[in-house]
From TrEMBL:
Pfam families per UniProt: MFS_1
CC annotations in GO: plasma membrane
Protein name: MFS transporter
Topological category with respect to the lipid bilayer: Multi-pass membrane protein
Length: 409
């Protein structure tokens, strides 16, 4: 079957929810980039909380935020779309407001602020995916989801860059960044709500909606917990290895992170379009193979030691990023393809639960394995990812085959 790889920006914007929604995504991500990477720093420097206490409060906020996902899934299955997206942004406005109001050395208000931020961060991906799925279908939906991720990563990168430059202003600058973040979340919520999108098929009562069972997708969800580790490799695993084991300059860690962000922005849509030649299930399995190969590559190059080790790690990180891009372009798309329309919200909520759990435990797992040497870290990640790839190969419904990729209406 012929597959077109033409990518038309206007069509992608319309398929992703329209211009106002695209602006909302960009503004929301820009605000997130201003604060989220520096939330720990805010707690330590502005609120003068001990670093372990701050980190524990942030982790607790993320984990507690996962508890909201079943309710989000049921809300989406009643037909809500833009309202849920806007709500996920508004709850973060509350989190930022509480953060600004927290007195120094008071951990509980900070923990509650982290909870609100965690709820918003956990609820947004499922709500966004449901909204895009309502606007466009088939492979156009996959490309629209990829375009949204590229846009979001670009805005996150810009926000983080602005914040990095602004941090020279000390604690006062961090407070300003938090205030601007709250305003950005509020503006994004208003824009998202103004889209006023509701799922037309979800016209039954809540009881009728609950009668449609959500697919369990046990193998896929279990595999996703391991797959999602790849998102924390550039931020946690590689800096840890580069600085503590290879004794490289922190500049290498920054270079790897920047390269990861740039590659996602540039390649997310083209790679997703290219992989549409295969079924989503096959694409996700390919992602697992690529990620496994990258982990084995990291294991091999760390043996080079000082000198060539850092450049080699940076080179292999490109392979890891390609695996991440294929994973991000196929995982959510596969869930939206397998879920019945009336159970889409609950299926996406379960998927985000598995993603959130993986992201929550991965820093602890990575930092626990790293001191035992490269074989313990990269060998374990490679083995777990390869096992997850085999689980993915058993998931699916037989209808997930390539249909061609058409980015036009």
């Amino acid at each position: 079957m012929a597959t077109t790889t033409e990518i038309r920006p206007r069509v992608l914007v319309r398929a992703s929810g329209g211009p106002r929604y695209a602006v909302a995504l960009a503004v929301d991500a820009l605000g997130t980039g201003l604060l989220r990477p520096f939330l720990l720093l805010y707690g330590v420097t502005v609120l003068r909380l001990p670093a372990p206490v701050t980190g524990t409060a942030m982790t607790a906020g993320v984990v507690a935020g996962l508890a909201c996902m079943p309710a989000v899934g049921r809300w989406l299955d009643r037909g809500a779309r833009s309202t849920v997206v806007a709500a996920s942004m508004l709850v973060r406005v509350l989190g930022v407001a509480l953060l600004l109001a927290t007195p120094a050395e008071h951990v509980w208000p900070f923990a509650v602020a982290a909870l609100f931020l965690g709820i918003g961060n956990q609820a947004w991906p499922a709500a966004h995916a449901a909204l895009v799925t309502t606007v466009v279908h088939g492979r156009e939906r996959d490309t629209a989801l990829a375009a949204s991720r590229a846009l979001r990563n670009a805005a996150l990168g810009v926000g983080a860059l602005i914040a990095t430059v602004t941090l020279e202003g000390g604690t006062a600058a961090l407070r300003v960044l938090a205030a601007v973040t709250g305003l950005a979340y509020l503006a994004a919520a208003v824009l998202a709500w103004s889209v006023r999108l509701h799922a037309p098929a979800a016209t039954g009562s809540g009881k009728e909606t609950g009668d449609v069972p959500a697919p369990r997708l046990r193998a896929l969800l279990a595999a996703n917990v391991v797959y999602v580790f790849c998102l924390n490799v550039p931020e946690i695993a590689l800096p840890l290895i580069l600085v503590t084991q290879l004794h490289a300059s922190p500049v290498w860690s920054a270079a790897v992170f920047v390269a990861n962000t740039v590659l996602v922005v540039i390649l997310q849509v083209p790679v997703t379009v290219l992989m549409s030649r295969f079924s989503r299930q096959t694409a996700l399995a390919v992602a697992g193979v690529v990620l496994t190969a990258s982990y084995l590559g990291f294991l091999a190059v760390t043996a080079l030691g000082d000198g060539w080790g850092a450049p080699a790690v940076a080179t292999v990180s490109v392979v890891c990023t390609v695996g991440e891009i294929i994973y991000a372009g196929s995982a959510t798309a596969l869930v939206t393809h397998l879920a019945p329309a009336r159970a889409l919200g609950r299926a996406l909520a379960r998927f985000e639960l598995s993603s959130g759990f993986g992201l929550a435990v991965s820093p602890a797992v990575i930092t626990a394995l790293a001191p035992h040497g490269p074989a313990a870290l990269w060998g374990s990640l490679a083995a777990a990812t390869l096992l997850s790839t085999s689980l993915v190969a058993t998931e699916g419904d037989g209808d997930d085959h390539p249909r061609g990729t058409v980015t036009g209406p």
